[in-house]
Amino acid sequence: MARGRKFNSNGERSKQILLEKAIELFSDKGYYQTKISDIVKAANVTQPTFYLYFKSKDALYNDLNIQFQSGFLEALESQSTEIVENGLKGFVTLLEQKLLNLFVYITENPKLTKIGFIESEQSHIVKTQLTQQIIHLIYLHDCDKDLQMYSVDMKIMIDSLVGSMERLIIIYLLEQKKLPADLANDIIQLYFWKTKETI
Amino acid sequence: MARGRKFNSNGERSKQILLEKAIELFSDKGYYQTKISDIVKAANVTQPTFYLYFKSKDALYNDLNIQFQSGFLEALESQSTEIVENGLKGFVTLLEQKLLNLFVYITENPKLTKIGFIESEQSHIVKTQLTQQIIHLIYLHDCDKDLQMYSVDMKIMIDSLVGSMERLIIIYLLEQKKLPADLANDIIQLYFWKTKETI
Amino acid sequence: MARGRKFNSNGERSKQILLEKAIELFSDKGYYQTKISDIVKAANVTQPTFYLYFKSKDALYNDLNIQFQSGFLEALESQSTEIVENGLKGFVTLLEQKLLNLFVYITENPKLTKIGFIESEQSHIVKTQLTQQIIHLIYLHDCDKDLQMYSVDMKIMIDSLVGSMERLIIIYLLEQKKLPADLANDIIQLYFWKTKETI
Amino acid sequence: MARGRKFNSNGERSKQILLEKAIELFSDKGYYQTKISDIVKAANVTQPTFYLYFKSKDALYNDLNIQFQSGFLEALESQSTEIVENGLKGFVTLLEQKLLNLFVYITENPKLTKIGFIESEQSHIVKTQLTQQIIHLIYLHDCDKDLQMYSVDMKIMIDSLVGSMERLIIIYLLEQKKLPADLANDIIQLYFWKTKETI
DNA sequence: AATGAATGAGCCTTCATTCAT
DNA sequence: GATGAATGAAGGCTCATTCAT
């Protein structure tokens, strides 16, 4: 019977809680198995309140993806202030740095990552972009020819790398089984091992 | 008004068409976005006919997963008749053979693979099993120590390999952009490159 | 694939089995919870065979009611060959005889009775008719005034008697807990006790 | 097109109307022939509104049974404040009182009674309980031996009484053909006539 | 006489979304 | 800012019944 604004309520706070619960539920149960009723129940508000802050279920999910993507890109692009060497070594060093940044971000946002990097439709795009960024990096360091010793096409190699990253993220990072730095190092070892050794 | 049997109807055929359309739709649109009404429309039968052959939408999806899994496992286990060498080289040779079989199966069943290896809940289990099988193979060939030169834990290496496989399958095999043999070779090159060269 | 007439099949036999299974199922589970698929499964024939012998589920149910009713009425009307006395005593003696006949029939057809006397829509009519028959009997024996000592309206008394019969049939006859003769006697005792004693 | 809340809508009222219409329809047409669409049509709401207040059709039906049973039991147990005599006379007096209470309740809730006492599966239990309560009453008044003059087993006598009650309720009470007090008196007369007279 | 195969019609239920307060 | 109450639009599934063989 009692309607209207809740005692002690606050708009931004409600939205924040809704977002948090949505991330948790979408991540744990997936988009289709998460009902809006679940989210609002978890956030302890009513359904119309949900629509006060989000246009639709789909829009919210999209928001979360955008949120993930911007964090992800930011982590990827955050320039390390150190001077970057050129050549393969410079590339590998920078890549490890970037992987580290990425993995830190992921470790700090595992549920959001599950949504934006693993489960959502848009995750395909993110992974494609990641691939392209890495390839871009290779060209920037002018070391595409150095990679020919791998005897497979560079594109395939990077696709492979990205696939490998995805799985290792799922198994080790989202489950908190490895530290970001360790995993970044492992991946670099795996893919650029000979490099490190010989140089 | 006209009820009952169609002119040239045949049970097995109807079931077959339903299966094919289901694979196509589940693969293209995903489980939740594929309605039974879509499937039966595509198969040109009515909804009750669907339930003549499948217990429920869920049961059908599960059937498809089982079907994929058994084909997948069969491909993985099909023994090549050649004598298998021991040691790393033997392992790598056999692994390439198995990847080839797998990739042939996948190329022949791209949509089913998308369902059973990429999209479904059960795909996690399949990938875990694949990982374990490869590790098992390593021990069988008694070459786990040979892999220590990779300077990363073997488990991580194989996890990485499986992740890589998944992504390359999506990009190159499901899209028919590469031949099974070529992709198998590429992966072997990527992960066991030094081996090949030095031996 | 093999269609057409079953080896050793026989029309009347199929119909008989269907009837038996239908009685059993309708009686045990009720009209709505008994599916035609249940009946034909129990009878080990296919659904179209059912429609070979019965126009519809409803028609079959109605047939069973008719069958019950005719057996019931026959039992009720079967004239005992003994000469019937007039007056209350004659009435009571005859009523007991009739109850006995009825109860024998019911004991021999418990499942059909459950359908036709307890569960079906038509059972109301049967009970009303039973009531009227008994009242008719009273007038025939010209003993309606004798019953005024009961200090309740005769109609109510007979309604009560019929209700009592129904419940005792359910509890004692359908469950085979009492013999027809015993139950008939009990009921007579209960309702015409004083009579018996004083006359 | 117009969704959302109605002008003068009120939750409790909607639920109440739904309950009333459900009682009416279940009572008139039976469980299986009453569709949820019928109920909501009668209540002038849409189907989802139904599920706002009831978990399922079955759950609602069960609720109605519970509602009937508790009213029924309450009526049966409501202690008359008068001092109760011991012996047969006390028992008969109390029983009549209780029948009266019961019949008043039934007269006030004829449709609910039809559901809970006549049609539903659970009605069997209710009648069994009623029988046991009456038998309990007999023992309480220590007059089981007094009833041996009836020359039939007491259990059968009470079963008969309950059957009689059921039928008389259907014919006279649900159809509003008799007043509660009159029917209670009639039944007492019928079953304990001699008692009344001789004492 | 009997069957394999199929269907029309409908029922229960769920879910995202929206009004009126 | 927030809610109680309600709804449009499906979706999965079942069942009696019928056709062609």
Task: Describe the protein.
Four copies of one chain form a homotetramer. With 199 residues, chain A is mainly α. Chain A folds into two domains: 11-54, Homeodomain-like (Arc Repressor Mutant, subunit A); 63-198. Chain A is built from nine helices and no strands. Chain A has helices spanning 11-29, 36-43, 47-53, 57-77, 87-108, 110-119, 123-140, 154-173, 180-198. In chain A, α1 packs across α2 (36-43), α7 (123-140) packs across α8 (154-173) and α8 runs antiparallel to α9. The longest helix of chain A is centred in the middle third of the chain and has 22 residues, at 87-108. The N and C termini of chain A lie far apart (75 Å). Chain C binds chain D through residues 31-32, 127, 150-153, 156-157, 159-168, 171-172, 186-187, 189-190, 193-194, and chain D through 31-32, 127, 150-153, 156-157, 159-168, 170-172, 186-187, 189-190, 193-194. The structure holds a DNA duplex (21 and 21 nucleotides).
Structural descriptors:
homotetramer; 199 residues; mainly alpha; Arc Repressor Mutant, subunit A; elongated; disordered C terminus
Note the topology:
Four copies of one chain form a homotetramer.
Chain A: H1 11-29, H2 36-43, H3 47-53, H4 57-77, H5 87-108, H6 110-119, H7 123-140, H8 154-173, H9 180-198
Helix pairs in contact in A: 1-2, 1-6, 4-5, 4-6, 5-9, 6-7, 7-8, 8-9
The structure holds a DNA duplex (21 and 21 nucleotides).
